[in-house]
Amino acid sequence: MSTAEKSGACRIMLEEDTDTEQAFENVLAEIQSFELPIEATLRSVYDDQTNGHKKFMEKLDACIRNHDKEIEKMCNFHHQGFVDAITELLKVRSDAEKLKVQVTDTNRRFQDAGKEVIVQTEDIIRCRIQQRNITTVIEKLQLCLPVLEMYSKLKEQVSMKRYYSALKTMEQLENVYFPRVSQYRFCQLMVDTLPKLREDIKEISMSDLKDFLESIRKHSDKIGETAMKQAQQQKNFSVIMQKQNNARFGKNMHVNNDSILEEKNDIVLKHVLEEEAENEEEVLTVQDLVDFSPVYRCLHIYSALGDEETFENYYRKQRKKQARLVLQPQSSVHETVDGYRRYFTQIVGFFVVEDHILHVTQGLVTRAYTDELWNMALSKIIAVLRAHSSYCTDPDLVLELKNLIVIFADTLQGYGFPVNRLFDLLFEIRDQYNETLLKKWAGIFRDIFEEDNYSPIPIGSEEEYKVVISKFPFQDPDLEKQSFPKKFPMSQSVPLIYIQVKEFIYASLKFSESLHRSSTEIDDMLRKSTNLLLTRILSSCLLNLIRKPHIGLTELVQIIINTTHLEQACKYLEDFITNITNISQETVHTTRLYGLSTFKDARHAAEGEIYTKLNQKIDEFVQLADYDWTMAESDGRASGYLMDLINFLRSIFQVFTHLPGKVAQTACMSACQHLSTSLMQMLLDSELKQISMGAVQQFNLDVIQCELFASSEPVPGFQGDTLQLAFIDLRQLLDLFMVWDWSTYLADYGQPASKYLRVNPHTALTLLEKMKDTSKKNNIFAQFRKNDRDRQKLIETVVKQLRGLVTGMSQHM
């Protein structure tokens, strides 16, 4: 309660009790109680009542007197007791002094005895303090020792390169141990060293990762080689099992006559079994070849440090760089199969490592990342193979490249990478392979044709006969019945060509293997490639052979015979392909071989070349003609060059007996017509200015020999005098001049039944003018003989009439 509030209360009391004694008694009671400040009480006495001070003093004096009376009463009441107490106190005074002496002595003796106790007590206190300090130290050391042990363990782990464990130890130190000893200075020193230690571990692990990346870049080819080898072994094993199953169920792909391919397959299968048996204990995995611990360690370290994304980005970036390096081939990669093998093994090694990382780590490599990387790599691989394979001119190298691509594709397909685009590329390379095969076989065919003697194959024994029959499907009952020695109609090149066509089919089949294609597709590919061989290469080689200058008529005849037998053998080639693929020729979509048209075209070209060369040979003989165009009389016998020509034609047409009848007849007719034309051109040659009647008679003798040759039927099959008609123009022209039957010629000219129907007025005019000029020069004195004058006039008259006929013909044209 505040002072103002108390003053107010007193004032109220005085106002209420001003006229009574009770009011002053209350004031005195307040003063005696010492509970209220006296200043406020006194102020209320002086301030609130008139003459209150006087009355208060009176009342106060009365109160004092009352108290004095009470004190006196109390003293009187206690005085005797006080006296008694003093008396007793005096009595014990002496005892007190004695007691004091005893107490002093006892105290002295206690002091003396306590000095040793004090010393011992101080020792005990000191020991207790030491004991307490020791206990405290032990407690603190027990608290710090695990921290120190963990820190020591941390240092040991770092020194032993157990960085991930070291990071885990750091984490324990920071979360568990350091908070317990954070008040100590050494703890702060340890805490300060941990960030640097973490950075050191990051740098060391990153350095190890770089070494690992460099190591796998160098060893990618070994990894890829091992992976491809294992894929090849697995594939070979599957092929062996399939072959065994086919053999068990009687599903052989080749017939007995084609045992060469079966023997090759048996040898290959045996070699594969032996090789797999040798390498059975040497199966290595990628973990055996590469230590992946640096990757795991670095990944765990960065994960523990919370910087996993940085590590993933760095790893992927570096691997993409390595992928670009791996995908960049050497410029000479196309020169040898080893170059392609190194290229493929490095790529396989790269993606085998990535696949392993994908499956043993979480998030470092994802399937989307590997798919993106593979698509990028696949595009580059296809571009590289397209570019470099185009330089390959050796079919064996292209085939080995195909086998490498198949193994490469099968290996990566086994690791889950899509390889359909690679098999599509193989179809492009297949076309190139066929082109290289065609070029190679073009050279083979040329060599066969160059080495052939173009004469029937002589056979002296049964063994030789069987050898030829085993090479070429020839069937002729008449030849079989003949005794030895005998001859096949074809030359040595025919069985060789047939064998080489089969070898080409084998070679083309090799590329179709392992392409995961159906038998129908393989059959179609074989037939198309064989058609290209026949229509492009063999046909071209035959045409080039036929057109070579050194190929004579005998060789051309043999070529025609050869093409006939090769044409007949085409059905056996179709059977051969059918036996390989088990696709019947009656199938709707089966491609037919174009050998028939190929050999027909070659045969037609050879026939045309025979006609041309025969005419050229005739021209050579005709060029040997040496007529004396001014002779007075003929020699009475045919010219020597013509007789040689006829003898040559007879010998040639005897060779033609092996040709088809129509070919021989056409050649004979063409030769006679060309000979007739050449003789006619010789008579009408513009450089020949004069011809005597004796020369015409000699020329007539030569034409008679030609007619006799034509009538002797040098080639059978002509009806009547068909062949003699080739010389009908010459015959009528010579008869006209020999008989000098101009009146009949001029009278019957233009009549269908004319005796000289084939004599052209212009031809007759040209020859007659040559004879007229001769008459003028050689018969100088002809004008003095009447007969000669008449003859000359007749010639001039006939010339005028012939000129009229020629002019009339030119106007009608």
Automatic annotation (TrEMBL):
Gene name of the record: Exoc6
Return the InterPro entries for the record: EXOC6/Sec15, EXOC6/Sec15_C, EXOC6/Sec15_C_dom1, EXOC6_Sec15_N, EXOC6PINT-1/Sec15/Tip20_C_dom2
Q: Keywords on this record? A: Exocytosis, Transport
* All residue ranges annotated as the Exocyst complex component EXOC6/Sec15 N-terminal domain in the record: 59-228
What is this protein's function? Component of the exocyst complex involved in the docking of exocytic vesicles with fusion sites on the plasma membrane.
Q: Which GO terms describe its cellular component?
A: exocyst; plasma membrane
Domain Exocyst complex subunit EXOC6/Sec15 C-terminal, by residue range, is: 422-770
Taxonomy of origin reads: Eukaryota, Metazoa, Chordata, Craniata, Vertebrata
Q: Looking at the record's lineage, which domain of life comes first?
A: Eukaryota
Q: Which Gene3D superfamilies match?
A: Dsl1p vesicle tethering complex, Tip20p subunit, domain D, Exocyst complex subunit Sec15 C-terminal domain, N-terminal subdomain
The protein, known as: Exocyst complex component
The family note in this entry says: Belongs to the SEC15 family.
Example GO biological process: Golgi to plasma membrane transport
